[in-house]
Amino acid sequence: MNATRRTGTLRLRGRGLWLVASLELKQRLRSRAWVVALAVWMIVLLGIGALGLAPVLLTAQYDGVEQVSSMIFSAQIVFVMFAMLLVVPALSAGAINGDRSAGTLATLQASLLSPAEIVLGKLLAGWSTGLAFLVLALPSLVPIAVLGHVDPLYMLRLLAVIVVLTACVTALGLGLSALTRRTLSSVVLAYVLVIGVTVVLPVAWGVSGLVITDEKEVTVYSTRYSADGDVEADEPMTCEARRETRQISRLDLTMPLMWGNPVVLLAETAPTVTADRWRTGEDEGLDLLSTLKFGMRTAAHPLAPSNFNECWIEDRGYPAHLDDGSDGAPLWPMGLGLWAIVGIAAVTLAIRRVAVPVRHLGRGERIA
Amino acid sequence: MSENSSLDPAALGQPQPPDPSTPAGLPPLGGGSSPGPVPRRPEGPGIVAEGVSRAFGSVQAVHGLDLTAPRGAVTALVGPNGCGKSTLMLMLASLLAPDSGRVLVDGVDPTIDSPAVRAAVGWMPDQFGAWDSLRVAEVLETMGRAYFLPPAQLRERVAHLLELLDLVPLAQQPAHVLSRGQKQRLGLARALVHSPRVLILDEPASGLDPASRRRLLSVVRQVAAEGATVLVSSHILGELEEMADHVVFMDAGRVVDASSVRELAQRPRPWRITSLDEAALRAALGTLGVRHGDVVPAAASTSGHAEVLVHLPDESRAARLLADLVAQDARVASFAPATGRLEAAYLASDAARREGAL
After folding, report:
1. Is there a shared CATH topology between the B4-261 domain and the B265-347 domain?
2. Which residue on chain B is closest to A363 by alpha carbon?
3. Which of A109, B167, B226, B294 has CB atoms 3.0–4.6 Å from B162's, for a disulfide?
4. pLDDT of res. A233
5. Residue range A246-298, pLDDT digits in tens
6. B175 touches chain A (CB under 8 A)
7. CATH architecture, domain B4-261
8. Residue B1: pLDDT band with limits 50, 70, 90
């Protein structure tokens, strides 16, 4: 039959999208377990913030409050992101195969809702639920951010990364849920992938630094001490350059392993710290994430001249303004791009798997 | 026995696919109003399957099946477990594509225009899946919204279906607390929410109490009377006989027999004759030369009368035998079919002779 096929698979209507999303949300909101989980989440975060700040506030060391708060803020935001990575796969990785087992997916598939509306509605619901956890973390994050004089734009960048990552991980869970028959399989698979990106790949990256090395002749800057070791206190020492062959870890070659790492992506939002400022300790607002960002940028540019500067800033002839790689290409576009590709691919896969009429069914898979 | 079960000789017209964004145009059962013009119904049978096959791995669920179900009538699908009934229904509901062959539902091929078919079909699966935390009324509202019914029509429709299927007292109950029979009623209401032109019911009577079965029968007959095509599968043959106009017997993925229920009256089946006098019954049967089974004495029968089973080719022959027995003073207390027409036809098939056939 030579007829134009009209599957309506990608048709997207606001009413359809909202129907599926609200159906999912309604079921969650009526579950006591979710209310308890949200309450526990909020209390734990408030507790962590209080426990971190309490010693500083109680000893009235107000000079240290800003620095401590800034550190606690960055630690807490990393904690929030890890917790989201634990929660979100559980939300989305059973959304399709769970409904298929319960017999409710086929009911929706047989209606006028399009596969795109079903999948994107579920994505919207999973994402919104994940963001509810983020919103509940704000009462703990905001006061600490205020105490730490955290730049509001920095905070917004952090939240934006978490929001995007939550959407992508939700999409990943949905894709796996559409791909596998059992909910347990998709949830486990989602956790394996998330743990793989956050833990396994960084370990692999670290190991690669030991394995992949290059011998390079580089210019090393080091402090020259007098031959007799008699150094007068007032006299600055001299910084001198010499050529030297060194074994260089080529962590830059395996840097793609770290592109998608959520902690690295968070760190990318931190204010950039230059090697010179790092040495002078000018950055009072230095936190865990900016430190990590500095480390990653250094690792991404193993041959940057600044990496071989071993002089003290007080030394005579100190080589200021050496290239430290801090103005090199940022990692976040690759990381977020990677996650976006994964998310879009997962949603596309889910839509294809939900599309009817079904032509191919997996082994042991049922429609209804 | 024919493999082709064409029940309606009407030639298939050129179908006009309905607008899938508009709910199918049956007027609501028992009143109510549909806004806007009623879409024109395509000509021809509501359901047509031509040489349809579908396999799951090495299992051939449906094999070269031909079937036609007319509009305005109830067609019963009868067959043993695993004979392909549910698979066929999934294909008709536009959920599953056939490997080969062609399906037309309301004049439209689901593989060509799935939304048009889904707009026309109300499907009730054999296993009810409900969103457990939703209330009964909410389940119907959700389904109505999934068919994009206008809010005013949706409210009216939900209220009407709750009443029609005796779900009003349960309207605010969560779906998960319902009994199996109540869930079946909700499932039927769900399938009817958008006033479908084709209603596909997979085991709708399963778990229903007698009163609910009567209600189901009434609702299904009403839907058909309003012009819809109804295809229903069930293992409860007695009920199907009351409900259906046509019957299609399936076995091993094929249609093995098809008939109108009315025509089944012309088929042989056993009749049970009870008499107040065993000797008179024996004598009358002997005089008339009727071949019969053993006469069960009154003391050994459940009715308390002498009983005998007689196989008769059709109902007119049965009527003549009854008249002759009365004339022979056989003291007949009752004279009735030992099985329903449907059951008799099914029991005569090869499928019925296998273990666990129904």
Report:
1. no
2. B57
3. B167
4. 58
5. 999 999 999 999 999 999 999 999 988 777 666 766 655 678 898 899 889 88
6. no
7. 3-Layer(aba) Sandwich (3.40)
8. very low
Q: Which residues, 6 or more positions from A190, have their beta carbon under 8 angstroms from its beta carbon?
A: A89, A92, A93, A169, A172, A173, A176
Is the confidence at residue B76, as pLDDT, over 70?
yes
Of residues B127, B128, B133, nearest to A27 (C-beta): B133
Please give the residue of chain B at the shortest CA–CA distance from A355. B95
Q: Check if A367 contacts B (Cβ < 8 Å).
A: yes
User: Chain-wide mean pLDDT for chain B?
Assistant: 86
Closest CA to B325 of B306, B339, B298: B306
pTM for the structure as a whole: 0.85
The confidence score (pLDDT) of residue B37 equals: 39
Interface probe for A, chosen from B90, B139, B143, B180 (most Cβ of A below 10 Å), is B90
Listed range (B24-28, B47-51, B159-163, B283-287) with the worst mean pLDDT: B24-28
Q: In the block, which residue shows the tokens 């035998």?
A: B321
Q: Report the residue of chain A nearest B196, measured CA to CA.
A: A111
pLDDT of B195 higher than 70: yes
The yes-or-no verdict on residue B14 having pLDDT over 70 is: no
Fold of B265-347: Alpha-Beta Plaits (3.30.70)
B239's CB contacts (< 8 A; 6+ apart) are B205, B213, B217
- Measured in angstroms, the CA of B268 and the nearest CA of chain A are apart by 38
Q: State the alpha helices, DSSP H only, in chain A.
A: 14-29, 32-58, 62-92, 97-102, 104-109, 115-147, 152-179, 183-195, 201-211, 256-259, 262-267, 275-280, 288-300, 332-354
Say whether residue A13 is in contact with chain B using an 8 A CB cutoff: yes
Sorted by where each begins, the domain ranges of chain A are 14-200+333-354, 213-249+269-329
- Phi, psi at residue A219, to the nearest 5°? -90, 120
B16 shares contact with chain A (CB less than 8 Å) = no
Asked if the Cβ–Cβ distance from A367 to B90 is below 8 Å, we say: yes
Given a cut of 50, the residues of chain A with pLDDT beneath it are 1-2
**A5 inside 8 A of chain B by CB:** yes
